[in-house]
Structures are given as C-alpha cells and as structure tokens.
Specification:
This protein has 2 domains: 7-382, ANL, N-terminal domain (Rossmann fold); 392-492, GMP Synthetase, Chain A, domain 3. The N and C termini lie far apart (59 Å). A hairpin with a 3-residue loop joins β23 (414-424) and β24 (428-437). The strands form 6 sheets. A 9-stranded mixed beta sheet has the order 2-1-10-9-11-12-13-14-15. Strands 4-3-5-6 form a 4-stranded parallel beta sheet. The chain has a 4-stranded antiparallel beta sheet with strand order 16-17-19-20, with no helix packed on it. It has 493 residues and is an alpha/beta fold. Helix content is 27%, strand content 25%.
Length: 493
C-alpha cells in the first residue's frame, strides 16, 4: 500500500510535474478573470504558511478563513495545511455578532478575514497579498488531522462547528466519494459555483489535489456560469437546485455549447421535476447525477439520470453505506413507508464531531440521521419525503427558524413571531415570517422588519416575505405547529 500523501506534498508534486498548468481561474463578480498556475499556488502557499507561522500557527491548530471566493482563499488554506493546521472556512460577510460567537466557539489560533479585526491573531486580505515578499521555499512536510471543519447552526439556532472526519492526505476526505463516482476525465476542469465556506464549494479541493483545474466564481450568476462553461470547456460542476433552476430559465440557453460537460452533480434540497427534465435535455440524463448526504459524512446516496427515469423522484442508492428507515420507536419500516432516514458508512473511517455540542447518539448498530424523512422502494432506491420538521432549505442553504425568530423578537414592534418555509418556484422554500405586532393598530412595516433582520442576520437568513397576524396559534405550553402553518398557506397559494 502506498504511503499516504499529504496535501502539501501533493501540491508540490503537481507543481513540479506541470508548473504552468492553470489550476485556479478566479472569475470575479465584476467580470474580470485572474489565472493562477500550479507553480504560483505552490509558491504562495509556502509564503502564507510563513505568515501564519509568525502568528504561532502550528500542527493541530485551528485557522479560520473568512474570505470571499478568491485566489487568496486558496493561498491561505494551503498555507495553513502546510503547517499541519485544521482549516475552518467561514462566511466572510456575517454580521459581527454572529461571527464573534462562532469565533468564540472555535477558539482559532489565527483568523484570516477580509478586513481588520481586534486581536493580534487576525490577518487581513491585505496581509495575505503582502506575503508575496516572504520566502517561498519548501517547508517540512506535515499532515493536518483533522484537515477541515465546517460551521453550521443547530436546530435551536445556536452555532455548531462540524469537525469533518479525515486527515489532510489525498483521498481521505469523505466528500471525495461523490465526485469520484461520476467518472471524470483526467485533469478535468471543474466550475465552482458555491461559496468556499459551504461543503459543496470547499469539496473542490479534492479535485484540485487530484489534478483538476478550477474555475471559481466569486459570486454565482447564471448567465456568467454558462459563459464560463463555454469559455473554459468545463467538465464538471456541483450545483444546488436554485442554481440549476436559474440557469434552466436563461433565454437562449440552448444556443450555448455545453458539450464539454461530463457530469453535473446536484444535491442540497428538493428539486422540481421540470428542472431535472430541462437539464436532461441540456447535458443528457447519463451526465446528470443526484446525491444525498451531509457534512457529517454519515453516508452517501447517489444515482444517475438514466436510473432516475426508471425511479422518478429518487436520490439514489447507497454508495459504501447502508440505509435504514425507522419509525418513531426505532423499528424498521417496509418499502414505501415514510420514516426517518438513517445511514451508516461501510468503511471504518473516524466519525465526525461537533464543537459546541455533543454529536447526537447513533441509533442501534451505529446508524445516524440528518433528521430527514423518506422511504425506500422495492429496489432499495431512496426518496426524500421532507426535510427536518423546522429546517428551511432555501436555495440549498440551511436556515433555522429559531435563529431568525430570535433576531425578530428583538424588534420593539414584535410581540411574537414564527418563521416557516413556504414552497417557492425559485428557492425551493422561502423564509416566511409571521409577525404578531405589539400594537395591532400600528404594525411594523415590511421594510422596517427587513432592515432589522439585515443588521442581525446573514443575507440568506433574512425572510423573503412577512405576514402580519392578529395572534399566533400557540398551545398552552407555548408550542406552535409549524407544519399546520405551512399547510394553511400552501393551500392558499
């Protein structure tokens, strides 16, 4: 068995093999492009590693990278990995209070952020750019273990950091299995549309370390994405439903040449049937893949479009894992019956852990759940019936109602609030807030509520619609039936 290859060593070998090969194309929001070669990435990673080392970063430390999608994000990530540090990519535009509580939870040794912040451990984008004058020579080979962590929020809206299983050696990341299954050509070109703080975006490092070139969008734009596919002859992309939908609706889309595409991998939320059919026409069902999984790495479920046509609506069959559908009492359910989905990986890899809260207890025999409901057909294909009871998946991003409710409850004009997800043709689900005003004769305006939320929440968590109600239907125990609220409004649409 070959010796495990560290991320840093692999990057150096790729740079030595083809130093001038384009490894990153930064597609900026203003339309500009910046091309980074393997040689430059290798050299800049060494320089940023020395910058971080000056801030006492070393083996086993945690480094937060809160930068937009950019070449500097990659320089900082590989610089940290070269020192044996764990990387936590963080949303760069979080409100300060939200970022502060995540940093308090993570306790990083260093933070690389867009702008300056109090504390000697903080480095700015300018600091990363200025490191170009530092020594770019080779460093001692180190393996980060674990290599990565991802930030999320718990079901109560409190922050959580998932420490993903897998050391910083090539092939050890559990998210690699999805892209490996689609069967890409050697040195494929991947279009990265998701932010690097999201699992879908950050997984692009697996492709880079296996020789892929990356075209990285600073911000998703449907028309620009199609232009980049044509211009750079993109072979592979991972997309959430909102991206797929917006591209499918582009006028004149079929005039574009998408023949370079080997595989489109979809995941993240339910997807309308018409969007699936549109993509089947664009790239062919044998090049469109469905997936179900999560950052925790409980397991992976996948299928290809031509299989989907025989099992319409499925997200696939297990890849190196097992599935159980259990009722509320933990009993196995037969095919066709809806229950909670539990997965167990077949390999003996280490499991995930949480910073901020203990990992949920597995069910019998080590099976774990994301809290989603679904069923299996007679052939073992999985179908998703619904997401978690309270979770709103909007445009592929998870929004927890309790967090939005907490922010809105701080408004002086709000007496009570409930946040739900309503069906939406573009977002899958839109965040909708029901407001019981403190003064029924003078309720707060939508603009006022939205501005209040924007000052306290990341943009994707701000409700897209508001509704003033006389009173929220809480029980005597203070509980509210969100499913009933959703059903009432869905019937009214």
């Amino acid at each position: 068995m070959p010796e495990p290859m560290s991320y840093g060593r692999q990057l150096g070998l790729l740079a030595a093999e083809k130093p001038d090969r384009d490894v990153i194309v930064q597609a900026s929001a203003d339309g500009g492009e910046r091309v980074v070669s393997r040689r430059e990435l290798d050299r800049r990673a060494n320089q940023v590693a020395r910058l971080l080392a000056d801030r006492s970063v070393g083996q086993g430390d945690l480094v937060v990278i809160a930068l937009p999608n950019s070449a500097e994000h990659f320089f900082a990530t590989y610089g940290a990995w070269r020192l044996g540090a764990t990387v936590l990519p963080l949303r760069w535009d979080l409100p300060s209070w939200e970022q502060d509580r995540l940093l308090e939870l993570a306790s990083p040794v260093a933070v690389v952020a867009l702008n300056d912040s109090p504390g000697s451990e903080h480095l700015t984008l300018g600091d990363v750019q200025s490191s170009v004058t530092l020594d770019d020579g080779e460093l001692a080979d180190r393996v980060p273990d674990p290599a990565r962590a991802m930030a999320t929020s718990g079901s109560t809206g409190s922050p959580k950091i998932i420490v993903a299983p897998g050391s910083g050696t090539v092939g050890s990341d559990v998210t690699r299995r999805a892209s490996q299954t689609v069967g890409l050509r050697d040195e494929a070109t991947q279009l990265v549309l998701s932010p690097l703080y999201h699992t879908n975006g950050f997984a692009c490092h697996n492709g880079l370390l296996e020789g892929q070139g990356l075209v990285v969008m600073e911000r998703f734009d449907a028309g620009r994405a199609v232009d980049l596919i044509e211009q750079w002859q993109v072979n592979y992309a991972v997309m959430v439903p909102t991206m797929l939908l917006r591209i499918a609706r582009l006028p004149g889309l079929r005039d574009h040449d998408l023949s370079s595409i080997d595989a489109i991998l979809y995941g993240g939320a339910p997807i309308p049937k018409w969007v699936v059919e549109a993509w089947f026409e664009l790239v062919g069902p044998d090049r469109f893949f469905f997936s179900y999984g999560g950052t925790e790495g409980h397991g992976l479920v996948m299928t290809r479009g031509d299989e989907w046509l025989k099992h319409e609506g499925t997200v696939g069959r297990p890849i190196d894992c097992e599935i159980r559908i259990l009722d509320e009492n933990g009993n196995d359910l037969p095919p066709g019956e809806v229950g909670e989905i539990f997965l167990r990986r077949s390999d003996p890899s280490p499991s995930f852990s949480y910073l901020g809260s203990p990992a949920p207890e597995p069910s019998i025999d080590g099976f774990r759940s994301f809290g989603d409901l679904g069923w299996l057909d007679e052939d073992g294909y999985l179908y998703i019936a619904d997401r978690r009871v309270d979770l709103v998946v909007s445009g592929g991003a998870n929004v927890y109602p309790a967090e939005v409710e907490t922010a809105l409850s701080e408004h002086p004009g709000v007496a009570d609030v409930a946040v739900i997800g309503l069906p939406d043709p573009e977002w899958g689900r839109r965040v909708h807030a029901l407001i019981e005003p403190a003064d029924r004769a003078h309720p707060p305006s939508t603009d006022d509520l939205r501005a209040h939320c924007r000052a306290r929440l990341a943009g994707y968590k701000v409700p897209k619609s508001f509704e003033i109600v006389d009173r929220l239907p809480r029980t005597a125990a203070g509980k509210i039936n969100r499913s009933a609220l959703v059903a009432d409004r869905a019937q009214g649409n």
